[in-house]
Amino acid sequence: MLNLIPSQYKLIALAAAVLALMALSATGAWQWQANSYQRQISDIRGEYAEAARQAEARARSEEQRRQTAIEGIRRDAQDKIAAVAADAAAADDAASRLRARVAQLSRRPASCAGTADGGEAAGEAGDLLALVSSRLDEAAGELAAYAEGAANAGTACQRSYEAVKRN
Fold first, then answer.
1. pLDDT tens for residues 17-71?
2. Which of 34, 100, 137, 139 has CB 3.0 to 4.6 Å from 95, enough for a Cys bridge?
């Protein structure tokens, strides 16, 4: 029965079959290559996602370390400020007692009998001494409080910078 089909049709059918097989083979190869590329792209995306996750974790860890260090420094500075305030209050109390004692001494009459006539002028000088002493003590207290506060702020700032600068 094969003899009934002319040989040229047989060749055309054979060529068509070969072309169809070649087309199917090329399509299969193309599909296999596309799948291979897709897997490679998927792997690369996974690697990038993992690298991004690790970088984010490192950044968060560093941020947390810095924040913890700064919080510790802030607490330490607050403690120092409280201690300075307590010291200033104690110094003010001592200064008040000293001013009261100077005022008391300046109001006391002179014990020397030879200067009894000049008691009025001596009283003014004693008041002046008490006033000058009081003002000097107040100014010294203010300067000491300012200097201590500035020193504590500078130390806290420096420690914060060092804590953040560390890698």
1. 999 999 999 999 999 999 999 999 999 999 999 999 999 999 999 999 999 999 9
2. 137
Unique residue bearing structure tokens 């996602």:
49
The C-alpha atoms of residue 155 and residue 138 are separated, in whole angstroms, by: 26
- Residue ranges of the alpha helices (H) in 108-118? none
> Residue 86 corresponds to which amino acid?
A
What lies within 8 Å, CB to CB, of 100 at 6+ separation is none
pLDDT in tens, 37-47: 999 999 999 99
> What is the Cα–Cα distance from 138 to 120, expressed in whole angstroms?
27
Residues ≥6 apart with Cβ < 8 Å to 95: 137, 138, 141
Query: Are 73 and 163 within 8 A, CB to CB?
Result: yes
